[in-house]
Design brief:
about 190 residues, alpha/beta, three-stranded antiparallel beta sheet, 6 helices
Length: about 190
């Protein structure tokens, strides 16, 4: 809901969508890890020959399928560390800091590499440490009380944990990659 988003978050989300669309090859086959309600794939649908969104949350997948039933998009409930697909994709996505909320980031990255094995075919967007203040405001606006902020994450009531990353930390986790700033609060990682 844009009404809950501070300006810095709203600017990031718009810039992220624009950047991903610029990098997405026309006619691509894309898989979106942690797709939620399908926002990114739905926005990209005219550029894709196939889009598959995966999320562990069944209600999100049902909403994604309701919002865009049928080809070229498909949505399925799956564990991002063990995706039940054997086909190869041109691009694997994990956007809007979804990777920063996942407990086994390296296993997810391994699945992204397995499904989109070509160099620079993985697109990840994550928050930088400079995002803490607008994220805390955003979470509060959505009714999620922030109970702790550390050098690497924000923890909200109920256990929701959202990490933020320095460039050095990203490179140590992802390995060979290119990093591009998205506004002042996030990074676009191409690995």
């Amino acid at each position: 809901d844009p009404s809950t988003q501070p300006d810095a978050i709203r600017s990031f989300l718009h810039a992220e969508e624009t950047l991903v669309a610029e990098f997405m090859p026309r006619g691509a086959r894309a898989v979106d890890f942690g797709c939620g309600t399908g926002r990114h794939l739905i926005a990209l649908r005219d550029r894709l020959s196939l889009g598959v969104g995966i999320d562990y949350e069944g209600a999100y997948i049902a909403e994604a399928a309701r919002r865009h039933p049928g080809r070229p998009l498909h949505f399925l409930v799956a564990d991002a560390t063990a995706v039940p697909l054997g086909t190869e994709f041109d691009v694997a996505l994990c956007l809007t800091n979804t990777w920063g909320t996942m407990s086994d980031k390296l296993a997810v990255l391994g699945e992204m590499r397995r499904l989109a094995p070509k160099p620079a075919a993985r697109f990840i967007t994550v928050y930088a440490p400079s995002s803490v203040q607008p994220r805390c405001e955003w979470y509060a606006n959505m009714g999620h009380e922030v109970i702790d902020v550390t050098d690497t994450c924000i923890v909200a009531q109920g256990g929701f944990t959202s990490e933020h990353f320095t460039e050095d930390r990203l490179r140590s986790l992802v390995g060979e990659c290119s990093l591009q700033s998205i506004g002042t609060i996030a990074y676009f990682v191409q690995a």
